[in-house]
Amino acid sequence: MPANLFKLxxxxxxxxxxxxxxxSATACAPDMFQLGRSTELDDYLNRxxxxxxxxYINGVEVWQLADDDASLAGDxxxxxxxASMLLYGTITPEQWKxxxxxxxxxxxxxxxxxxxxxxxxxxxxxPALPKAYKKVFRAAPQVSGND
Length: 147
Description:
The chain is mainly alpha-helical. The protein contains 8 helices and 2 strands, in the order αααββααααα. A two-stranded antiparallel sheet has the order 1-2. Strand 1 and strand 2 form a beta hairpin. Helix 5 packs antiparallel against helix 6. The radius of gyration is 18 Å and the shape is globular.
């Protein structure tokens, strides 16, 4: 009898699967959908590539991370997600630095130079959150990039 408790009807299973897919697609990297549509994000990434591109984070030149050409796949995605949260003010520079240095396992002086350069490229005022972000953060608020 208890085994039947966990059996879902076909309709319930389909709804649950749809919910999982929807949450997976929206809870991570809404910024991926903003590339080419968010001039603020594009401009910020261009400034990072131009002014910090020769800096290194754990052996990777920053321009490669800011360039979203998929050559570093997961690393670029994470960097982009974190950079966008930093740009739009959903995490602080301190949270961003802790998240990035932890992910890339680089707390070296060279890494710190890169982090400080990236932070220095921020505009004086954080731009307004794009609609895609508002929906995501309403559904899954983030305190830091690792939440």
